[in-house]
Design a protein that fits this description.
This protein has 128 residues and is an alpha+beta fold. It has helices at 28-34, 80-84, 87-91, 116-127; strands spanning 7-8, 13-18, 21-26, 37-41, 48-49, 54-60, 64-68, 73-78, 100-104. It has a single domain (7-104), classed as Beta Barrel (OB fold (Dihydrolipoamide Acetyltransferase, E2P)), CATH 2.40.50. A hairpin with a 2-residue loop joins β2 and β3 (21-26).
């Protein structure tokens, strides 16, 4: 089971409320299915993101996957270490593998995201 304190998108991004900021990342399922990660592109601090729109991409030896913003807001921090060491994403996607921190412009958007149980159900449905 994925962490209960996170919210999820069907496209396999997660969001965690940290005070007045929201941290984004991708799930273990996404990391596992991409496998062999080689490159990540993340936005700059100050970038404005819109919920459901692309904010970067992660590249593996088999595919390039766009990253979608769980909520709208301004990027206030980027995990620069991730750009140098993608192992953090592979070994700890819900911790050290975080991608960006955003100051949400519409905090209520968090309410529309999937909880852990709903996300698990989307994975089960896609496996059928």
């Amino acid at each position: 089971m994925r962490p209960e304190n996170l919210r999820y998108l069907e496209s396999h991004e997660w969001a965690r409320q940290d005070g007045d900021l929201v941290t984004f990342g991708i799930t273990d399922w996404a990391v596992e299915h991409l496998s062999d990660l080689v490159y990540i592109e993340l936005p700059e601090v100050g970038a404005q993101l819109a919920k459901g729109k692309g904010f970067g991409e992660v590249e593996s030896v088999k595919a390039v996957s766009e990253l979608f913003a769980p909520v709208s807001g301004e990027v206030v921090e980027v995990n620069e270490e991730l750009k140098e060491n993608l192992d953090h994403l592979t070994s700890d996607p819900f911790g050290a593998g975080w991608m960006i921190k955003v100051r949400p412009s519409k905090p209520a958007e968090m309410d529309g995201l999937l909880d852990a149980e709903q996300y698990e159900k989307t994975l089960e449905a896609s496996a059928e």
